[in-house]
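User: Quick sanity check before I run a bigger batch. Here is a single chain. Can you write out its predicted 3D structure?
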Amino acid sequence: MCTHDLKALTMEGFERMFNQGDVDYADIAIATEAVDHQEPLGASFPPHLKKVVTTLRTGFPDLHFEVHKMIAEGDTVACRSTMTGTHLGRLDIGPLAGIGPQGARVEVSHMHMFRYSGDRLADLWHVWDTTALLRQLGAPMPEMRVG
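Assistant: Done. Predicted structure follows.
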């Protein structure tokens, strides 16, 4: 596929899964053997992504990702995005687990890198500013220890 088509697939994934909550799109868009490089080796990516989307949309019913910049080369697409939403539900994911609804409006920066095999996502690398999110939710900040 050309880089223009890969960018379009990437945008469709953000729109359908995160912005609209269509978690079944993961079964179409992600290769069976795909890897989310933030998860333990062997973790099944499509079910994991469905859980992440469902959890985020439960915590932030008005969840929205806006992609600001996208670049593509070969089989890889990279982008910067901002996640926004209002914290009206429970978040049971990573450092957010156990934080009850705060009613806070959040804005969180993300960076993503996607590698495709044909028209299916094969690899994902992703970072997001969880410290900013915790701060916006008024959550206790994790302790940082040196030495």
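The mean pLDDT is 92.

User: Great, the batch can go ahead then.
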